[in-house]
Write a structure and sequence with these properties.
Elements (H helix, E strand, L loop, with lengths): L1 H9 L5 H32 L4 H37 L4 H16 L4 H25 L10 H18 L6 H12 L7 H6 L8
């Protein structure tokens, strides 16, 4: 009977906006954990030193922070959307922008490694989307040739120049990845740390 009552409540349209906020919180938490846990696992065991306990603690903290922030953001965003639509009687495009700006400020405004990675992930996709939108709306002409090869060249040229000469400006995990690829590959002592290991341990 309790389950039937709950299902009946969930099907009522008048509670849809409020329930969507709650489910958005749930989906944000789950998605954040699914995205961050495997990423943190790989990056921690590849590049971080410390005991197994310390590594597992780092993975759990990163996963929790990502999951929590995404859940809070979705909750805030959908709640503000619903509130604006109720106040104005309809949903307009600016509502989405304003709700997301407020949510971004409140939830992702703290400059920490997790938030920084999320913002950089979004920024790269925003730039691509805005370029496509500008072409679609006619603000810039349709390229005669695919501009992606030029973009790839400029991105790689810029990031390696920054790594070589202004490394401190790059995000720490990117520095670690590039150190592994471009500096550690310059150093070896024997066949073991040439092909099998990246670096020779002290015992070797």
């Amino acid at each position: 009977a309790l389950l039937r009552a709950a299902n009946a409540l969930l099907r009522q349209r008048r509670y849809h906006a409020a329930l969507a906020v709650i489910k958005g919180f749930r989906n944000g938490a789950v998605y954040g954990a699914k995205i961050r846990a495997p990423h943190a696992l790989v990056m921690t065991f590849l590049f971080k030193s410390g005991s197994l306990r310390e590594k597992l603690k780092s993975i759990a903290q990163a996963t929790y922070a990502h999951s929590r922030n995404l859940a809070y953001f979705v909750f805030t965003y959908k709640g503000l959307l619903a509130a604006q639509a109720r106040l104005q009687g309809k949903k307009i495009p600016f509502h989405s922008f304003l709700a997301a700006c407020i949510g971004g400020w409140l939830v992702f405004g703290d400059n920490n490694p997790i938030n920084s990675q999320i913002i950089m992930y979004l920024l790269s996709r925003i730039l691509f989307a805005l370029a496509r939108l500008a072409v679609e709306k006619g603000y810039i002409p349709q390229p005669r040739q695919d501009p992606f090869p030029l973009l790839a060249a400029l991105v790689w040229g810029t990031v390696l120049w920054l790594f070589e000469y202004h490394r401190e400006t790059l995000q720490p995990s990117l520095q670690s990845s590039m150190t592994y690829l471009y500096e550690d590959s310059d150093v070896w002592h024997d066949l073991a740390d040439f092909l099998i290991y990246n670096k020779r341990t002290d015992s070797k």
